[in-house]
TrEMBL record:
<dbReference type="InterPro" id="IPR029061">
    <property type="entry name" value="THDP-binding"/>
</dbReference>
<feature type="domain" description="Transketolase N-terminal">
    <location>
        <begin position="7"/>
        <end position="264"/>
    </location>
</feature>
<dbReference type="InterPro" id="IPR005474">
    <property type="entry name" value="Transketolase_N"/>
</dbReference>
<keyword id="KW-0808">Transferase</keyword>
<dbReference type="InterPro" id="IPR049557">
    <property type="entry name" value="Transketolase_CS"/>
</dbReference>
<protein>
    <submittedName>
        <fullName>Transketolase</fullName>
    </submittedName>
</protein>
<keyword id="KW-0786">Thiamine pyrophosphate</keyword>
<keyword id="KW-0479">Metal-binding</keyword>
<comment type="similarity">
    <text>Belongs to the transketolase family.</text>
</comment>
<dbReference type="Pfam" id="PF00456">
    <property type="entry name" value="Transketolase_N"/>
</dbReference>
Length: 276
């Protein structure tokens, strides 16, 4: 996919996010929108996955450690063809398989049930270690929130990954700077993030999470790195693409009403038009 196609796909995924959260009348749009470009690149360019065979043995694994941004993962999976995009409107509805957090037992393409913050990276490290023990070629990717890395379990997992030289593991931190209670630096600062991962023997890169050239370069370098895991610190904008949600902590876990939904979709339609 070229850069323009990736931008168009990411914009469609953002529409899916807003639609799903609006239909549910609950959910987490801010962090979902900030991660949309990273997820687009992973599923449409980087990872070896097949919607027609979601459980194939040699597929690359993805763990959404910050499981509350399930709308972003679901919108990406739907865009990729794992299930109908129309199903996004059933998010969090009684009886729907699209629960508020990812469920590996019922959702095609979900490799790990997640939502308890801090735990996803541990599961991803286990998957990466399993590949090493089996001499398998698949790679493992996990996406963390920058507020999530306030959890101690994250650093236990990072210590283990660095010590075991898991060069088939890529940890991405969605660094949008905001969590449910406000600025991450004020709540419980995890900074400096890059230096922390470097201390655990990671190859570390810092990029603009909305620049596909930088994203592509980072994943290419991660693939070429041997003997150590990679951490990509992706500086992002919470609520990216929706004017009134951008950089607003209040949109961490709030759903748009009908009027706000119309405005959000108009914003994204305008972006779509600019990409033609």
């Amino acid at each position: 996919m070229d850069t323009l196609a990736l931008k168009k796909t990411a914009n469609e995924i953002r529409k899916g996010i807003v639609t799903a959260v609006h239909s549910a009348k609950s959910g987490h749009p801010g962090g979902s929108l900030s991660a949309a470009d990273i997820l687009t690149y992973l599923y449409f360019e980087e990872m070896n996955v097949d919607p027609k065979d979601p459980k194939k043995a040699d597929r690359d694994r993805f763990v959404l450690s910050k499981g509350h941004i399930a709308p972003a993962l679901y919108a990406t999976l739907a865009e990729k063809g794992y299930f109908p995009k129309e199903d996004l409107k059933t998010l969090r509805h009684v009886g729907s398989y699209l629960q508020g957090h990812p469920d590996m037992k019922h959702i095609p393409g979900v490799d790990m049930s997640s939502g308890s913050l801090g735990q996803g990276i541990s599961a991803a490290v286990g998957m990466a270690l399993s590949a090493k023990l089996d001499n398998a070629d698949y790679r493992t990717y996990t996406l963390l929130g920058d507020g999530e890395i306030q959890e101690g379990q994250v650093w236990e997992a990072a210590m283990f990954a660095g010590a075991r030289k898991l060069d088939n593991l890529v940890v991405i931190v969605d660094n949008n700077g905001l969590q449910i209670d406000g600025d991450i630096a004020d709540v419980c600062s995890p900074y400096p993030i890059a230096e922390k991962f470097k201390a655990f023997n990671f190859n570390v890169m810092e990029i603009d999470a909305h620049d596909f050239d930088q994203i592509a370069d980072a994943f290419k370098k991660a693939r070429a790195t041997k003997g150590m895991p990679t951490a990509i610190i992706a500086k992002s904008i919470k609520g990216k693409g929706v004017s009134f949600m951008e950089n607003q902590a209040s949109w961490h876990g709030s759903a748009p009403n009908d009027e706000q939904y119309a405005q959000a979709m108009a914003d994204l339609d305008k972006i779509g038009e600019s990409l033609k």
